Sequence to fold (138 residues):
Amino acid sequence: MKINTLHALKSKTGITLIELLVVVVIVGILAAIAIPMYTGYMQRARRADAKTALEQVRAAQEMRRAERGSYETSIAALRTTWGAPAATVGDYTITMVATTATYTGTATAFTSRQSVDRTVPLTIDQDGVKLPADKWAK
Fold:
């Protein structure tokens, strides 16, 4: 009787190859779903830094216009005097093209992590028009 019990215990220890393969397949499926979602989340988070920087450019320009009656044409002066963001924010380069009556702030991605934003940069102008609209909405 004891031999049968000992044999039954030995046969139930460990895992089979099939069980191991099932676990590997499940982990693979979970990774296939989670990694793209995480990548998209990180791209949106980095894009939020650029959006914030462009809003800071807009706020600095509006403060300048309220006080002096015209927009600043130099982004360097806007940075030192009116609190505009640095030239590089996260994965984006912040630039501005301006006259005394208009301006357009641009955030251009320069890293491969933000390759989805390299072809079409984020922009904002004096009227608050934000392009491309689909990237500002997310």
Summary: Residues 2 and 30 are 44 Å apart (CA to CA). The chain is about 55% helix and 15% strand.
